[in-house]
């Protein structure tokens, strides 16, 4: 041990001689009293490293034994003494060094300026050491305080006071010579981890100083009080966390080493950097604080992804408990200048939070210094952690807290801000409050609700609610709370395993055998993967060569190893037989890990308990056995959160993983699977030679000159899976509908599921700019409320229908009824021997094509079948439940239910399966509406009036009743409807109603649809005050419901006849093929700006669907038709010529054509000249949510059945425009006359259609 | 380290054994050049010798190439982005490389435009030139020329690079099927080892150069499209960048791709001439695509791609060629993977056996294998029982089909 010490000392001495040499070259400096302390600082820095290094080693190597401890104490005393001596001996030398540096850089800076500049910088530095000596001091005082030690402390105290006075004196000087200052400071401080190039914030000197003083204060407090951090630190050390102790001690040791190593290069770098560096610090630093906010924005745009990566890396490290890694990572980022620019205060806060939890105040102080070095300002979060830490230390001095609070005020922050804006975890809030209470015993945080602004358009919905009340659900409070518990359990598990509907099939021997085989394999794979994961983690952990680089290691630590393996095994089971693109597979895996991590993070932060409390209180609003409320769910929830503010915050806090990270993580896992999962090649056919073959293959497919990585399962695996027909399906929990009403959306980041993270707006993966814009958006409240309204609708399953569908599904499926048949029904893939000379090359080519088509068909059938299997299995699982669909929206404001497979926007089959959970008596006219709905579903009588439709329904009652009674064995009238399954459901409902003793009192849960007719054209006609156009889209009251599509089709047919007569070939070919369906989508989308190109594609699709249309003419015909549709529309909407002209003119002038909507915002129009005769309505694809948000809550009381609340969220301005047109214009406000329309093509909806509920 | 040296040595050894691509320096293009005047007489003589009976005497003098300015003006009228040979000297040079005066091959000229090269070819004594023009704009003048000659020139409204589309639908010229074109021209199918029946000369369209080249090499291996009619020789102007990729050698990991391997395997590739972009008349104002990577792209290179007569002699057939295509593409999707891993993927444990048969090192990378070696490797694989059982064979059918020849 003594040898070590000698070495260390020798090093110091050698260094000293080095300095001496330097000093020779430099002119002697003036010895103003101010410089003295500076020199001391410099000396200490130099001497400290080796000494401290050694001390750490000492205490590390000799644990706990008493005499050993004593020895340590003595040694450290000695060291301190020695240090003090060195200090006394060396001052002059160091001063000279500073001069050397300065002279090297620029001539004019005088020694005085330099040294004075150093003042504020050095002060914190100085005290960095004090805690250390303080610690030892305390230890020493326990046994016996030596004379030397006493002297030392005295000296130190003197110096402290001197230095505290120092900055004030210096300040003036500094202001005069900022350049000298910045330079001086650069060579000044050498904290652990910041060994070189310190960038001090030059301009906000007062603040900078004050801040420095805070950290000083913290340190001072620590060192002077005997109980402060020292005690805390001591407890930490003595506590059971032996491991932590080890790691903590190792850390600084390493740092120390690194520092000494970095020393020389650092100095060189300083020199080289000085020229540009000084300019840099001068020019950019002073503006820094003001720029900060802008910086955040710019950074979000430019390097948002990198920042997000760093942040999520840090958080993952912290979550996994790897504090050392997080800390050294932050330091390494901090050290590299290019990386440091990316950091902002929040990154440092993450580390502070960790230290606050441990109660190590001096670590926090250290990070405050780092912050200052980086030229950043501490924000609320930083103060919050500081206060928290003070709150955790029982003996913390009130003086310190007061100082901290005052500091906050100086920075323009108040304690109230702290409580209203900070995100708290676990008991952080209570700790902060405790700290504040120490100095202000009767402080109560005042929380005020954010004043919500809503667009003027919907203002009255919010202001005039005197005689309104929020509708109750048909559940008691207790029921709702119980449901919440179920849902919570579900989401805590993250995955849910349910019986597939195929479970009903009998198990054959072969199936049983295959299942057994698969299960065995899985068990084996699990073991192999577990081991592989552990090994690769070990490698990753140790090969982190450059620690500022991000790697995947922390992301592989956030969950338990077993959970990763489960995710991987699950993905093997759900891999489609034709393989999956590597990127998609990786993304899914990564996303699954992320979801699980989020849920666990919430558990760790103790959010769950609080969520339960608030949700339970929230049920007051919804339950039927509580009093009426006039507030909306989001308002109520917000109020509850404010009331129950103690404990962790519910909102915010979690960081999204950047897209690239989750994909990378996923691909890493896929790679592991490809490398490790093997099976014997003879499992199915013993005739094969036994070899160990991989089950997954990484192949490439080629699209033109691009290549796409693909993961393909081995055919044997597919065979096994298909034969086993496993009856369990495992889903992510968010795939299932919710068992309780969803959490209302109260902000962009919070709502929908209980724990599973969910997005308010669906975006393309990785498109962060959308999120940034969305967060900036102020007027979202109406949108959120609309989504909540949709989400609060309870649903149930139509059980009789489900049984019929499952029976067909498990039998052989039916293409006609849209029930996909099983793969056994698929066409056999023809086999042929390519080498056979009997075939000609043309025949071979033909057969090849057949094979390809058969394969394609098979994979299509498989995916359709699986989709149906998922939907039906989920429905079957929920058959006795009542459930809710949480909603979100896409970038246009179109709303969607979050659960992907089974929801009310699905196909005919899934829609037919859903009923409202809450029934209503039919009332006097309800039965009639049911009948009209039935006719609408058949797609017949499109052009009849409502009376006509009702009449028709009455005339076919026999068929209806027959369909209801014998759906599969009767006349099967329902099977010919456009939407057969919904029609069948409606038949059954009608039958039940008719046969009930009193149809008016029959309770029905059946949904009846209402729809607008070509909404886009409606707006357009309204804009142009075009009466004829308005009539054709039912904006004018009319006897008959008008059908614009049929009208256009008719017009096109007229053109066609004319052209056919004039001998045009394609017009002749098209005879008899022009129907409403062919033109419908194009007509509908014309107003949304569909081009001739897109329109042609739409028509081409329709024509291809017509079986007997000659395929070779599709191209020409679609070309011809799209032209005709456009001119037909032009013909029909004659009254709108003015607008067209205006629109064109504007487009030609290349100016923005705009108008003001009532909300006062101006609306720009798309500028591009389009080939369409219509001005393009400013569809908000680009302007997104920012333009204007308008919600038109039209509560359509669907007469018969239920209160179907159609919330039509329309981000687009056109609704506003329509409203204003009507309000100011000559037309009386006419709303869509409620043309009932049943037939809606699913595909069309996907593409363009209106989604209404 | 030692393995590196080993690998380098191995590479050198093998390269010495393998056929090398003839570079321009290895052959003097002007060596056998005949003077224009002698070529002219030659043409006239041979014309007399072959079909002198039908040829009017007044056509003995050479065709007028037209004013350069006039030709430039006509070329610039074209709306598509195209390059034209207008400079008579350039046309002369191309003609000399083609040696139209000897040999019985038909010359297909793709997109002649104003017809400078066409006339030069005819002047040099070409006996049969087929001008395949895709743009109606130039068609009339060419047809007028066709009418003035008797039989040496045929003009077809057809775009050579759009032959045999994959999709279905009614075709309109300039898109057409090969069999129609060849039947109309009266060219019949020929055996692979026969003489070269057709020489194609033209400028590869800049749009999607690589895609077009890929499509053509697929057709070559499967003996589809024009290659049903024998070994069609291509003399194409290709951008320098693509040319360098085409002839890249193993070890150039960035450029050595599947399509270079396939072309080198199938053809003797010869660089005939390099001509700067400026010598061509460009019909659109658009800027030339500048080379973003390190490859130079200053020239258009006249490259001769002559299919090897012995390509199908060693076990490769048009039917199993698709497997070869697949294999090469899968191997070279990444150049820095070990070949043995790829082989083991298709048939476990047989990789090392194959490599030892090939005399290669165990750790050879896919980017270090010569085209000829890939061909031999494939022939070995095709013979081995283990591989034909492999499901790789099933994969093959769908993939190249997707973008290859119908």
TrEMBL record, chain A:
Keywords tagged on the record: DNA-directed RNA polymerase, Nucleotidyltransferase, Transcription, Transferase, Transit peptide
InterPro entries from the UniProt entry: DNA-dir_Rpol_C_phage-type, DNA-dir_Rpol_phage-type, DNA/RNA_pol_sf, PPR_rpt, RNA_POL_N_sf, RPOL_N, TPR-like_helical_dom_sf
Source organism (scientific name): Gasterosteus aculeatus aculeatus
Superkingdom of source: Eukaryota
EC number: 2.7.7.6
Biased composition (Polar residues): 274-287
Domain DNA-directed RNA polymerase N-terminal: 485-792
GO cellular component: mitochondrial DNA-directed RNA polymerase complex
Uppermost EC category: transferase
A GO molecular-function annotation: mitochondrial promoter sequence-specific DNA binding
PANTHER family per the UniProt record, alphabetical: DNA-DIRECTED RNA POLYMERASE, MITOCHONDRIAL
Biased composition (Low complexity): 133-143, 220-236
GO biological process: mitochondrial transcription
Region (Disordered): 108-294
Biased composition annotated in UniProt, kind: Basic residues: 238-248
Composition skew (Basic and acidic residues), residue ranges: 123-132, 147-179, 252-273
PPR repeats (start-end): 344-378
Keyword Lipoprotein attributed: no
Pfam (any one): RNA_pol
Function in brief: DNA-dependent RNA polymerase catalyzes the transcription of DNA into RNA using the four ribonucleoside triphosphates as substrates.
Catalytic reaction annotation: RNA(n) + a ribonucleoside 5'-triphosphate = RNA(n+1) + diphosphate
Sequence similarity: Belongs to the phage and mitochondrial RNA polymerase family.
Name of the featured protein: DNA-directed RNA polymerase
From TrEMBL, chain B:
Subcellular location: Mitochondrion
Keywords, sorted A to Z: Methyltransferase, Mitochondrion, RNA-binding, rRNA processing, S-adenosyl-L-methionine, Transcription, Transcription regulation, Transferase, Transit peptide
Recorded GO MF terms: mitochondrial transcription factor activity; RNA binding; rRNA (adenine-N6,N6-)-dimethyltransferase activity
GO biological process: transcription initiation at mitochondrial promoter
Renumbered residue ranges of the record's region Disordered: 22-42
Record's keyword annotation contains DNA repair: no
InterPro entries per UniProt: KsgA/Erm, rRNA_Ade_methylase_Trfase_N, SAM-dependent_MTases_sf
Pfam families found in the cross-reference section: RrnaAD
Family according to the record: Belongs to the class I-like SAM-binding methyltransferase superfamily. rRNA adenine N(6)-methyltransferase family.
rRNA processing as UniProt keyword: yes
Any GO CC annotation of this UniProt entry: mitochondrial matrix
Residue ranges constituting the Ribosomal RNA adenine methylase transferase N-terminal domain according to the UniProt record: 90-309
Stored Gene3D superfamilies: Vaccinia Virus protein VP39
Protein name: rRNA adenine N(6)-methyltransferase
Binding site for S-adenosyl-L-methionine: 83, 85, 133, 159
EC number: 2.1.1.-
């Amino acid at each position: 041990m003594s040898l070590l010490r000698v070495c260390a000392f020798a090093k110091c001495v050698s260094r000293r001689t080095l300095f001496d040499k330097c000093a020779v070259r430099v002119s002697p400096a003036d010895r103003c009293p101010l410089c003295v302390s500076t020199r001391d600082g410099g000396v200490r820095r130099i001497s400290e490293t080796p000494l401290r290094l050694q001390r750490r080693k000492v205490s590390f190597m000799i644990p706990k034994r008493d005499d050993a401890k004593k020895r340590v104490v003595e040694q450290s005393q000695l060291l301190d003494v020695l240090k003090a001596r060195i200090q006394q001996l060396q001052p002059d030398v160091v001063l000279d060094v500073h001069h050397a540096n300065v002279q090297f850089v620029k001539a004019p800076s005088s020694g005085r300026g330099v040294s004075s500049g150093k003042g504020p910088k050095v002060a914190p530095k100085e005290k960095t050491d004090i805690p250390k000596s303080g610690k030892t001091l305390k230890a020493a005082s326990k046994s016996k305080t030596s004379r030397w030690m006493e002297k030392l402390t005295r000296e130190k105290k003197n110096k402290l006071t001197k230095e505290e006075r120092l900055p004030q004196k210096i300040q003036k000087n500094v202001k005069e010579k900022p350049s000298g200052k910045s330079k001086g400071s650069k060579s000044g401080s050498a904290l652990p981890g910041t060994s070189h190039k310190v960038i001090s914030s030059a301009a906000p000197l007062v603040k900078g100083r004050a801040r420095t003083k805070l950290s000083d204060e913290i340190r001072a407090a620590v060192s002077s009080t005997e109980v402060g951090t020292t005690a805390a630190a001591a407890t930490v050390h003595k506590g059971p966390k032996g491991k932590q102790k080890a790691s903590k001690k190792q850390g600084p040791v390493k740092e120390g080493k690194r520092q000494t190593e970095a020393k020389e290069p650092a100095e060189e770098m300083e020199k080289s950097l000085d020229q540009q560096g000084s300019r840099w610090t001068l020019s950019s630093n002073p503006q820094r604080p003001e720029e900060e906010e802008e910086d955040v924005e710019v950074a979000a745009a430019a390097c948002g992804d990198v920042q997000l990566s760093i942040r999520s890396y840090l958080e993952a490290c912290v979550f996994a408990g790897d504090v050392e890694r997080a800390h050294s990572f932050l330091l390494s980022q901090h050290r590299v200048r290019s990386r440091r620019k990316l950091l902002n205060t929040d990154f440092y806060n993450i580390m502070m939070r960790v230290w606050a939890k441990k109660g190590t105040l001096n670590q926090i102080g250290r990070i405050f210094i780092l912050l200052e070095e980086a030229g950043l300002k501490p924000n609320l979060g930083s103060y919050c952690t500081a206060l928290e830490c003070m709150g955790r230390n029982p003996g913390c001095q009130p003086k310190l807290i007061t100082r901290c609070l005052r500091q906050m005020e100086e920075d323009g922050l108040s304690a109230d801000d702290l409580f209203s804006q900070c995100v708290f975890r676990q008991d952080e809030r209570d700790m902060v409050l405790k700290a504040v209470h120490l100095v202000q015993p009767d402080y109560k945080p005042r929380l005020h609700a954010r004043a919500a602004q809503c667009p003027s358009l919907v203002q009255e919905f919010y202001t005039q609610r005197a005689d309104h009340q929020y509708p109750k659900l048909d559940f008691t409070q207790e029921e709702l709370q119980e449901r919440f518990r179920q849902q919570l359990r579900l989401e805590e598990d993250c995955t849910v395993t349910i019986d597939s509907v195929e479970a009903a099939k009998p198990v054959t021997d072969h199936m049983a055998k295959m299942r057994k085989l698969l299960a065995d394999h899985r068990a084996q794979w699990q073991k192999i993967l577990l081991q592989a994961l552990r090994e690769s983690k070990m490698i990753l952990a140790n090969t982190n060569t450059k620690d500022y680089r991000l790697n995947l290691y922390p992301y592989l630590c956030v969950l338990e190893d077993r959970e990763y393996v489960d995710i991987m095994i699950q993905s093997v089971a759900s891999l489609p037989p034709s393989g999956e693109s590597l990127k998609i597979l990786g993304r899914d895996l990564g996303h699954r890990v992320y979801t699980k991590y989020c849920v666990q993070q919430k558990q760790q932060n103790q959010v769950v308990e609080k969520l339960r409390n608030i949700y339970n209180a929230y049920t007051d609003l919804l339950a039927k056995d509580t009093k009426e409320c006039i507030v909306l769910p989001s308002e109520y929830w917000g109020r509850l959160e404010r009331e129950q503010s103690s404990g962790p915050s519910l909102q915010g806090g979690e960081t999204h993983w950047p897209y690239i990270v989750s994909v990378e993580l996923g691909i890493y896992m896929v790679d592991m699977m490809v490398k490790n999962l093997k099976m014997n090649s003879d499992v199915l056919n013993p005739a094969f030679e036994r070899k160990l073959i991989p089950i997954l293959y990484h192949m490439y497919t080629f699209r033109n000159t691009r290549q796409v990585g693909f993961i393909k399962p081995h055919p044997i695996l597919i065979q096994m899976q298909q034969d086993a027909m496993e009856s369990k399906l495992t889903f992510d929990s968010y795939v299932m509908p919710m068992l309780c009403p969803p959490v209302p959306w109260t902000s962009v980041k919070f709502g929908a599921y209980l724990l599973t993270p969910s997005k308010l707006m669906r975006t393309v993966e990785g498109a962060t700019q959308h999120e940034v814009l969305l967060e900036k958006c102020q007027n979202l409240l109406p949108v959120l409320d609309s989504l909540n309204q949709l989400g609060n609708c309870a649903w149930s399953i139509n059980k009789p229908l489900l049984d019929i569908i499952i029976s067909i599904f498990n039998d052989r499926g039916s293409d006609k009824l849209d029930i996909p048949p099983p793969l056994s029904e698929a066409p056999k893939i023809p086999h042929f021997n390519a080498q056979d000379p009997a075939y000609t090359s043309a025949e071979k080519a033909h057969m090849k094509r057949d094979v390809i088509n058969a394969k394609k068909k098979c994979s299509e059938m498989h995916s359709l079948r699986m989709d149906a299997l998922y939907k039906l299995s989920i429905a079957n699982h929920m058959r006795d439940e009542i459930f809710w669909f949480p909603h979100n929206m896409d970038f246009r404001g179109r709303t969607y239910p979050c659960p992907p497979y089974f929801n009310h926007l699905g196909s005919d089959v899934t829609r037919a399966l859903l009923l409202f959970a809450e029934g209503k008596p039919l009332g006097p006219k309800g039965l009639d509406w049911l009948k009209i709905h039935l006719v609408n579903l058949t797609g017949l009588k499109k052009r009849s009036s409502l009376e006509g439709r009702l009449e028709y329904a009455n005339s076919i009652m026999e068929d209806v009743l027959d369909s209801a009674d014998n759906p599969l064995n009767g006349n099967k009238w329902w099977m010919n409807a456009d939407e057969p399954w919904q029609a069948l459901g409606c038949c059954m409902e009608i039958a039940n109603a008719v046969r009930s003793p009193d149809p008016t009192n029959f309770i029905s849960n059946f949904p009846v649809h209402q729809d607008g007719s070509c909404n886009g054209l409606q707006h357009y006609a309204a804009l142009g005050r075009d009466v004829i156009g308005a009539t054709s889209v039912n904006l004018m009251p009319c006897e008959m419901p008008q059908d614009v599509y049929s009208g256009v089709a008719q017009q096109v047919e007229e053109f066609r006849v004319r052209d056919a007569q004039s001998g045009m070939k394609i017009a002749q070919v098209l005879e008899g093929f022009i129907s409403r369906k062919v033109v419908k989508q194009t007509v509908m989308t014309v107003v949304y700006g569909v081009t001739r190109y897109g329109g042609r594609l739409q028509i081409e699709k329709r024509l291809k669907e017509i079986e007997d249309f000659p395929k070779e003419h599709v191209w020409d015909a679609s070309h011809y038709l799209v032209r005709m549709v456009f001119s037909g529309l032009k013909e029909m909407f004659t009254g709108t010529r003015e607008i067209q002209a205006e629109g064109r003119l504007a487009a030609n002038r290349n100016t923005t054509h705009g108008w003001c909507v009532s909300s006062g915002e101006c609306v720009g129009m798309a500028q591009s000249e389009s080939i369409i005769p219509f001005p393009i309505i400013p569809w908000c694809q680009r302007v997104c949510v920012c333009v204007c948000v308008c919600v038109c809550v039209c509560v359509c009381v669907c007469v018969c059945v239920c209160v179907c609340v159609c919330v039509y969220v329309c981000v687009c301005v056109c609704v506003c425009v329509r409203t204003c047109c009507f309000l100011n214009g000559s037309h009386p406000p006419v709303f869509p006359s409620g043309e009932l329309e049943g037939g809606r093509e699913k595909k069309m909806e996907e593409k363009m259609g209106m989604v209404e509920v | 380290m030692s393995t590196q040296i080993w690998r380098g040595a191995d590479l050198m050894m093998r390269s010495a054994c393998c056929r090398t691509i003839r570079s321009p320096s290895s052959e003097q293009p002007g060596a056998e050049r005949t003077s224009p005047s002698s070529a002219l007489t030659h043409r006239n003589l041979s014309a007399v010798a072959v079909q002198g009976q039908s040829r009017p005497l007044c056509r003995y003098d050479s065709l007028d190439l037209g004013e350069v300015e006039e030709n430039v003006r006509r070329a610039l009228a074209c709306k598509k982005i195209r390059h034209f040979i207008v400079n008579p000297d350039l046309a002369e040079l191309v003609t000399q490389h083609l040696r139209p005066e000897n040999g019985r091959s038909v010359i297909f000229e793709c997109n002649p435009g104003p017809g400078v090269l066409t006339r030069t070819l005819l002047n040099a004594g070409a006996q049969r030139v087929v001008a395949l023009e895709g743009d109606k704009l130039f068609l009339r003048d060419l047809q007028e020329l066709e009418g003035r000659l008797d039989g040496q020139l045929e003009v077809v409204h057809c775009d050579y690079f759009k032959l045999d589309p994959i999709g279905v639908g009614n075709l309109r010229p300039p898109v057409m099927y090969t069999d129609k074109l060849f039947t109309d021209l009266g060219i019949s199918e020929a055996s692979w080892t026969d003489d070269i029946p057709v020489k194609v000369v033209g400028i590869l369209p800049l749009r999607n150069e690589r895609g077009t080249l890929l499509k053509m090499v697929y057709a070559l291996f499967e003996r589809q499209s024009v290659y049903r009619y024998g070994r069609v020789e291509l003399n194409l102007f290709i951008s320098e960048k693509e040319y360098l990729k085409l002839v890249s050698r193993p070890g150039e990991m960035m450029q050595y791709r599947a399509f270079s391997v396939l072309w080198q395997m199938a053809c003797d590739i010869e660089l005939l001439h390099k001509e700067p972009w400026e010598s061509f008349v460009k019909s659109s104002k658009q800027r030339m695509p500048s080379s973003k990577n390190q490859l130079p792209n200053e020239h258009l290179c006249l490259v001769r791609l002559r299919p090897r007569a012995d390509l199908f002699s060693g076990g490769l057939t048009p039917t199993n060629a698709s497997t070869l295509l697949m294999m090469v593409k899968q191997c070279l999707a990444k150049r820095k993977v070990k070949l043995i891993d790829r082989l083991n993927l298709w048939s476990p444990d047989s990789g090392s056996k194959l490599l030892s048969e090939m005399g290669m090192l165990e750790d050879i990378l896919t980017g270090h294998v010569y085209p000829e070696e890939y061909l031999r490797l494939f022939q070995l694989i095709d013979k081995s029982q283990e591989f034909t059982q492999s499901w790789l064979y099933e994969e093959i059918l769908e993939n190249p089909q997707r973008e290859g020849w119908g």
